[in-house]
Amino acid sequence: MPAALVRQPDLPDRLAFVWGAFHDLRDERPLGFGAVGAIPWSAMDRYARRSGLADHDEFARFASLLRAMDAVWLAWMREKMKPVQQ
Q: Percent of the chain at pLDDT above 90?
């Protein structure tokens, strides 16, 4: 896991929900052919609805933050999965 995620920074309360969602949804990623995909929008939508996040703008912010976090994680994972070149 990236060092920035391991150190678990102090988060403002307003971001704790997204941080928790990121970790709760990590197993929703599609896997196949040696690759890991992004957290699906449908999983984000279900999570948000189940958590009572119904406002369109709040969901857009939630999804945007979650996608940004996921993009960093996916870049780290792609780097980690690269074959070692000799």
A: 53
